[in-house]
Specification:
Layout (H helix, E strand, L loop, with lengths): L9 H14 L6 H11 L3 H29 L1 H19 L5 H30 L4 H30 L1 H22 L27 H5 L2 H30 L5 H29 L1 H17 L10 H28 L4 H30 L3 H17 L11
Helix pairs in contact: 1-5, 1-6, 1-7, 2-3, 3-4, 3-5, 3-13, 4-5, 4-7, 5-6, 5-13, 6-7, 6-10, 6-12, 9-10, 9-12, 9-13, 9-14, 10-11, 10-12, 11-12, 11-14, 12-13, 13-14
Length: 403
């Protein structure tokens, strides 16, 4: 069955990118950190708390949003997510304390991001069973590129209108744009497959759909979750420390280090498309092996930055490229292994690895720096975890559902 004559499935990709560009603005939090430190007279660690909270509530909310959109469809859930994202930022603009910002931005907006994030991915893998890797890559590329666009915009708004007015302006913009993108989203008809496409006999795509409980009863889920945690903890640790590492180890100015944040965002976005496409041709697990191997070596070599400053630019490019790959391939792996019927909630459970990785990775690196006066141990641990992730990919096999 195909409804290509009545609806062009590539519109789904456009809606997905529009939504994800807004959601990906969370990666630009560092733009707000120093202004908030000055206004609220708080420490850098305290000023990082809203970012930590938004990551964990984002991840947790994908479970609820995924289950909801599996039942109600992606449009209504994405709209609800856009409303919560915008409302949280607008309320944060009236905040007078760090606690209020954590509640409104970290929790309310975080839940909104989680609701909206899973909808374009779930819809995309259903419309594009023939190009799952590429489409999940495109669907989340906007998320990786969000900081590239929103970072400079937020910086300009803060300079001209102040940090709290910037929250309000961006909140309104995000609410409107996510709403528009959500109107495009929809699920294909039951039994849909692209015209002229039939799954090959040798495909690894799951023939059956797993409920969340059935997925959680498979050993593969826990291995997938574990290596996703390794990758996200490493990637988000580097993302959160890119500017300080540049200034402290590569001896860059604050302005040049800010450019590095944008460079990482570019490779983050490109990695989602590039690795997603590679995984369609080369296989998901083989591609993940390569990504973990490259990321592990790249992070271990971060220890050379202090004596080999140019490596800083190579390192952030490689880590950004690999991190983007994780975010593109794991949704496709979830759909391949456990089917598309419940992919929203199923990927929500897998995605909790992102939240835990982001939370712990962003605590670990500053603590190592505080205790040892160096990032070296953090780089070594993160690099080893990625290499371990590469090895574990050989242990993950297609689950066989008991009928």
């Amino acid at each position: 069955m195909s409804n290509g004559k009545t609806f062009n499935r590539w519109w789904i990709v456009l809606g997905a990118i529009l939504i994800q560009l807004c959601l990906g603005a969370i990666y630009a939090w560092s733009v707000f950190r120093i202004p908030l430190q000055k206004i609220l007279t708080i420490t850098p660690t305290q000023a990082s708390l809203p970012f930590s909270f938004v990551l964990i509530f984002f991840a947790l909310a994908t479970i609820i949003g995924g289950r909801w959109q599996d039942k109600a469809g992606p449009r209504v859930v994405a709209i609800a997510g856009g409303i919560l994202l915008g409302l949280g930022m607008i309320l944060a603009s009236f905040a007078k304390s760090l606690a209020a910002i954590i509640v409104f931005y970290g929790i309310v907006s975080g839940i909104g991001i989680g609701f909206a994030y899973v909808c374009p991915i779930s819809s995309g893998v259903k419309w594009f069973p023939d190009k799952r890797g590429l489409i999940t890559g495109l669907s989340v590329a906007g998320f990786g590129a969000g900081a590239l666009i929103v970072g400079p915009l937020a910086r300009a708004l803060i300079d001209s209108a102040g940090v709290f007015n910037t929250f309000r302006i961006l909140g309104i913009i995000f609410l409107v744009l996510v709403f528009i993108g959500a109107l495009i989203l929809r699920n294909p008809p039951v039994g849909y497959k692209p015209e002229g496409w039939n799954p090959p006999v040798t495909t690894t795509t799951s023939r059956v759909d797993y409920s969340p409980g059935q997925m959680l009863s498979t050993g593969q889920f826990y291995l997938i979750w574990l290596i996703y945690f390794f990758g996200c903890a490493t990637g988000l640790m580097i993302i959160g420390q890119t500017s300080p590492i540049g200034q402290e180890l590569a001896k860059l100015s604050g302005k040049t280090a800010a450019i590095a944040v944008s460079v990482l965002a570019i490779f983050n976005a490109l990695g989602r498309i590039f690795w997603g496409k590679v995984s369609d041709a080369f296989g998901r697990l083989r591609t993940l092996f390569l990504i973990f191997l490259i990321c592990g070596i790249a992070v271990l070599l971060y220890n050379l930055i202090a004596v080999l400053h140019p490596y800083y630019w190579i390192g952030i490019s490689l880590v950004g490229l690999c991190f983007g790959g994780y975010l593109a391939i794991f949704p496709a792996v979830t759909a391949d292994f456990y089917g598309t019927k419940n992919v929203g909630v199923n990927y929500g459970f897998v995605f909790t690895a992102y939240g835990m990785g982001g939370l712990l990775g962003n605590i670990f690196a500053p603590k190592v720096l505080e205790k040892t006066k160096s990032y070296n141990l953090a780089f070594i641990v993160a690099g080893i975890l990625c290499l371990l992730g590469a090895i574990i990919t050989f242990m993950i096999k297609q689950p066989k559902k008991k009928m």
